[in-house]
From TrEMBL:
Record's protein name: Elongation of very long chain fatty acids protein
Keywords carried by this UniProt record: Fatty acid biosynthesis, Fatty acid metabolism, Lipid biosynthesis, Lipid metabolism, Membrane, Transferase, Transmembrane, Transmembrane helix
Lineage: Eukaryota, Metazoa, Ecdysozoa, Arthropoda, Hexapoda
Skewed-composition ranges (Polar residues): 276-301
PANTHER family: ELONGATION OF VERY LONG CHAIN FATTY ACIDS PROTEIN, FATTY ACID ACYL TRANSFERASE-RELATED
Provenance organism: Phaedon cochleariae (Mustard beetle)
């Protein structure tokens, strides 16, 4: 029991020493226990409770709800991009090295980081909608890992580093989400719009480019002083590399292998058609030869 109290005291001391005082009283900032409860509940619902609840039920019709949700995500992501640029990345932030801006001057970026964290929590609804619609094939390891980890990264930002070098991740990720949720909205309008959505595969490419940028952005400050916590740079590098691997594997499976299967299927169909054509021609030739033979016999008689 004394060990538990010691652990709790150590955690409290760590939070008091390293938390940013500007965001201490903000919703869920510094409240790791609350975040863990939310994420554990999310994972449990999406993998156990949700599928069990839906087992003997028909999929929910959530088309209108999801359309509204996607539009909200589009406009909120647009706002986050605007705030990220205006609060630093289009003004005085530097790509090579950017410490957290303290005091009132950095408050706009700090508020943007909290908003980013809040919308990462709302994005958990992506998976909830999948479960309620019985789209279980969409609830993959990649999807769950991505949706669980991003709120954790954003929480670290809000609590300890509401600004600085790591916020480029939020800016680029929000830009990608503008396009991604716009795609989701358009695809929900009906099959007549599918011909305009040929660029789906390029979304995954953009996400992989995103991870490359984040990796380079954080890797290049690991070997020099930047005034930004190096463990966070390590964390972002590792996660960017791992996400690049996961999304790359998804891209190969979803697009390259599927394309190869289509090509092979078309090749097999052409080969079968060619064989069929040759067989028909051969049959006709044999028939013609037999006819000529019969006619010759008749003439001879």
């Amino acid at each position: 029991m004394s060990g538990l109290f010691g652990l709790m005291d150590g955690y409290k001391h760590f939070m008091e020493k390293h938390s940013d005082p500007r965001t201490t009283d903000w919703f869920l900032s510094g409240k790791l226990g609350h975040l863990i409860v939310i994420l554990v509940t999310y994972v449990y619902f999406c993998t156990k409770a949700g599928p069990k609840y839906m087992k003997h039920r028909k999929p929910y019709e959530l088309k209108r709800t999801i359309q509204i949700y996607n539009l909200i995500q589009v406009f909120s992501s647009m706002y986050l991009v605007y705030e990220g640029l205006e609060a630093g990345w289009a003004t005085d932030y530097k790509f090579a090295c950017q410490p957290v801006v303290p005091g009132e001057k950095g408050m706009r970026m700090a508020r943007g980081v909290w908003l980013y964290f809040f919308f990462k929590l709302t994005e958990l609804l992506d998976t909830v909608f999948f479960v309620l619609r019985k789209k279980y094939n969409q609830v993959t390891y990649l999807h769950l890992y991505h949706h669980t980890l991003m709120p954790v990264c954003a929480w670290i930002g809000v609590t300890f580093l509401p600004g600085g070098h790591g916020t480029l991740l939020g800016l680029i990720n929000s830009f990608i989400h503008v396009i991604m949720y716009a795609y989701y909205f358009l695809s929900s309008l009906g099959p007549q719009y599918q011909k305009y959505l040929w660029w789906k595969r390029h979304l995954t490419k953009m996400q992989m480019v995103q991870f490359c940028i984040i990796f380079v952005h954080n890797f290049q400050v690991l070997f020099r002083e930047c005034g930004y916590p190096r463990p966070i740079n390590y964390l972002l590098c590792v996660q960017a590399a791992y996400f690049l691997y996961l999304f790359g594997r998804f891209y190969v499976k979803q697009y390259l292998r599927e394309k190869q299967k289509v090509i092979e299927k078309e090749s097999d169909c052409k080969e079968e058609a060619h064989k069929s054509s040759n067989g028909t021609s051969a049959a006709k030739m044999n028939g013609a030869v037999q006819t000529d033979s019969v006619q010759n016999k008749i003439k001879a008689n």
